[in-house]
Amino acid sequence: MNAPFRFTTCRAGSEPVLKRDIASHFAGELAPAFMKPQFITWKVRSPGFSPPRTLSTFARVSGTSLGLCKTIAEVVDHARQLTSKPFRLHVFPRLTNEDGVEAAEWQRIDAIQAEITLELLQAGVQLETRLPYAHGDLILDVIVGETDAEPLFLGHHEHQNGSHIQPGGLPRISLPQDVPSRAWLKLEQALAWRGWDQLDLRGQTALDLGCAPGGATFALLQRGMDVLGIDTGEMDERVLQLAIAQGVRFDHWRTAAGRLNLTALPQEPALLLCDINLAPPEVLPQVARIQEAVQARRLILTIKLNTPALEDRAHEFIDSGQPAGDLRVRWLAVC
Asked: Which among 28, 98, 179, 232 is most buried, taking Cβ atoms within 10 Å?
């Protein structure tokens, strides 16, 4: 019998660091097998080796591989053999754009999911749809290729407390054309991943470190928050216009985070956000210093890993953030 396989998906461009990261932790146990952009499977070399449920920080989703299916009937056959208990169905695209998956692509995915769901139900397979997700829920992952002619990839994983619930780890959010920067999308994705997008944040205060030109601040103002932005750079004029239109407050302190007067900062803000474009060894001490002073209730920190050397130190940077409390990591965004 062939050794079992595991699968991982990742953001575009993260394939090399994903391979290095898994090699550093599982050398001799896992070997790269089938590879496509944003997707890698791994052969388990030792029959007695049991990899952890999450193989790498750089993986969006990781789980057990069930192989390629040319037809939906094959998907149903695999599902029937997998378990007699209800499971959740996640269908998502393999290729994703940094600006988010377009609506037309989600429509294609939804059509495939509807067809799979119908055939599963007709075959007597039970699907779990109740919310919230529970720890240990079995999830069947169906990964869709670039064209309908490409075979579907099938795998499964167990839901873990604190993990995302969006299929493929992909919130259905794309970058609008009328926002100041891509930071808008990064923030909205992070909020969705933690479930904080469902919170009523109106009238609460956010502290935005590295705010210019204003993408994340723009998103916070749209949610009705008062924002104190810290950055030496200039803000997009649309930020102030939105604050006026929303009837909320936006203040811009044109100074570096390292020069802040901590006693002048708002205490216990609802959110501390940091997207400073510096390497983690420079940013993390500043965030720790500011967080100790303000005691923000929630923290979203983007770690800039712009070189292979920094990528390979990712776990060091993540470990340094453990005193922050409930720390969860998503594609190297520490939240």
From this structure: 179
Residue span of the structural domain in which 127 resides: 5-169
**What DSSP assignment string belongs to 46-108?**
STT----S---TT-SEEEEEEEEESSHHHHHHHHHHH-SS-BEEEEEES---TT---HHHHHH
CB atoms within 10 A of CB 266: 14
Cβ(209)–Cβ(277) below 8 Å: no
Decide if 298 contacts 270 (C-beta within 8 A). yes
Look at residue 144 and give its three-state secondary structure.
strand
Question: Is 32:40 a contact under the CB 8 Å cutoff?
Answer: yes
Considering the domain architecture, whether residues 188 and 158 belong to the same structural domain is answered as no
Q: 162 and 258 share a domain?
A: no
Same domain flag for 64 and 207: no
Q: Supply the DSSP symbol for 4.
A: P
Give the pLDDT confidence of 143-186 residue by residue, as tens digits. 999 998 999 999 999 999 878 899 999 999 999 999 999 999 99
Query: Which two tokens mark 266?
Result: 């708002």
> CB–CB of 47/1 below 8 Å?
no
| DSSP letter string, 179-203 | SSSTHHHHHHHHHHHHTGGGS--TT
Q: Is 111 helix (H, G, I), strand (E, B) or coil?
A: helix
Q: Are 280 and 317 in contact (CB under 8 A)?
A: yes
CATH number for the domain including 328? 3.40.50.150
Which of 169, 204, 229 is the C-terminal boundary of a domain? 169
Give dist(CA 141, CA 78) in Å, integer. 12
Query: Domain count of the chain?
Result: 2
Global pTM value: 0.90
Residue 2 has pLDDT above 80, yes or no: no
